[in-house]
Design a protein that fits this description.
The structure is a single chain. The chain contains twelve helices and 23 strands. Among the domains are: 166 residues, no CATH class; 91 residues, Jelly Rolls. A hairpin with a 2-residue loop joins β14 and β15. Helix content is 27%, strand content 28%. The mean pLDDT is 93. The longest helix has 17 residues. It is α+β, with helices and mostly antiparallel strands. Strands 2, 3, 6, 8, 9, 10, 11 and 12 form an eight-stranded antiparallel beta sheet that branches. Strands 1-21-18-23-16-15-14 form a seven-stranded antiparallel beta sheet, with no helix packed on it. The protein has a four-stranded antiparallel beta sheet with strand order 17-22-19-20, with no helix packed on it. The chain is globular and about 70 Å long.
């Protein structure tokens, strides 16, 4: 069992408060802190001390894949820790994005490296893995997730009444018969992302959204959901003025997750996380193709090849495992997320999951105990790695307080 030194990612959309307060550091921080990474991704592996020497989790796993991951996990995932656990803290909207499936990630990564990249060019593919993910809200978390149905998208555009959206609206009628929904939504997305005057279109859309969001009750035929979506675009525009992503956002479903609610984003699902704090678990990848709300690279053709309009965004309702345990089981082999909420003074329970596990406490101290009596205290905001060979660890609240902790492990 090893305490982890998790990497903080200072992306511009991050919070100056959430991660620092979780870890007991002074807040607000001078720079935004967007994500806390716990895992072995090559770009930011978690640090740890093993046998008195400073190292990181990637090196530890590479040195002994079977011991750290277990033989089955090491074989199934090529000797890699298959998941990455994050705390997500968004004060501004993330980019509208999509993640590839396993085949496209491997092919895209290989093709880029074989063809070479121009000096200073950013790759479209950061690695050769897929990136399915689960977001579990710690606070209310606003998201844009999954493409609307064409009829719903047309109704929203009609409520906005922006003449410059005529081509987008026309695209929503594209296609007949089987697959027409997918054809229509991809055509509409293409019409947005290839618009000849994106800044002007974005400005017109934001003005219309502001009017719709502020209209008195009964003054518009728009549904409450459409008015809330318009208000979301208006708010996002404060941080991303004139960005074509403000228009693309109209094609996405808008919702607000309550604390404890979770959604599963499969490969091909277009989405943007707007604002809030949450726990994210994902396959050990950083492959992101963007469609707006960003200053980073946008590869329209590759994104349209990846987006699957048929991907839903299902709620991931946790199972009740007893003893305060819940399991968020996504239909992927890379990861599974457990949550343990235990009152002060509660006795030890088996640490949920099997194989390599990462434990994160979000409230209270998580005390881990091995059969030989060795103990490790994981304080609020801290995390620990439990290798597969230590398969009989027990978990209990430490000190005098209650415990709220998340445990990440492989899905299969």
């Amino acid at each position: 069992m090893d305490l982890l030194d998790a990497a903080v990612q200072p992306y511009a959309w991050g919070s100056h408060e959430v991660i620092a307060r979780l870890q007991g550091r002074p807040a607000p921080t001078p720079e935004p802190e967007a994500e806390l990474w716990m895992g072995a991704h090559p770009s930011a592996p978690s640090g740890l001390t093993r046998d008195g020497a400073a190292t990181d989790l990637r090196r530890v796993v590479d040195a002994d894949p079977e011991g750290e991951l277990g033989a089955d996990c090491a074989r199934a995932h090529g000797g890699r820790l298959p998941f990455l656990l994050k705390v997500l803290a968004a004060d501004q909207a993330l980019s509208i994005q999509v993640h590839p499936d396993a085949d496209r990630a491997a092919a895209g990564y290989a093709a880029e490296r074989a063809g070479g990249l121009d000096a200073g060019a950013s790759p479209t593919y950061a690695d050769d893995w897929p990136k399915p993910e689960v977001l579990c809200a710690l606070t209310e978390f606003e998201v844009l997730a999954g493409l609307r149905d064409p009829d719903d998208a047309r109704a929203l555009l009609d409520a906005l009444d922006v003449p410059a959206l005529a081509a987008v609206r026309a695209a929503l009628t594209t296609g007949e018969g089987a697959g027409s929904r997918d054809v229509a939504m991809l055509a509409a997305l293409r019409a947005v992302l290839t618009h000849p005057d994106p800044a002007r279109l974005a400005a017109d859309v934001v003005a219309a959204c502001a009017r719709l969001a502020q209209a008195p009750d009964g003054a518009s035929a728009a549904s409450t959901a459409h008015r809330e979506a318009a208000e979301a675009v208006t708010c996002i525009a404060r941080d991303h003025p004139d960005d074509i992503g403000l228009v693309a956002a109209l094609l996405l479903r808008h919702r607000v997750l309550a604390p404890g609610e979770a959604i599963y984003m499969a490969a091909g699902g277009l989405h943007a996380y707007v604002r809030g704090a949450g726990i994210e678990i994902l396959a050990n990848s950083d492959n992101v193709l963007r469609a707006g709300l960003t200053g980073k690279k946008i590869d329209v053709e590759e994104l349209l090849r990846i987006v699957d309009p048929g991907v839903g965004v299902p709620d991931l309702t946790p199972s009740d495992d007893g003893d305060g345990g819940q399991t968020y089981a996504a239909p992927v082999p890379h990861f599974r997320l457990h949550r343990v909420i235990r009152p002060a003074g509660a006795g030890p329970i088996p640490l949920p999951g099997r194989g390599p596990r990462i434990v994160l406490s979000v409230e209270g101290t998580a005390t881990l105990t091995r059969p030989d009596g060795a103990r490790l205290d994981v304080a609020t905001g801290a995390s620990a790695f439990v290798p597969a060979r230590e398969d009989d660890v027990r978990l209990e609240p430490g000190g005098s307080g209650a415990l709220d902790a998340f445990v990440a492990c492989p899905g299969a």
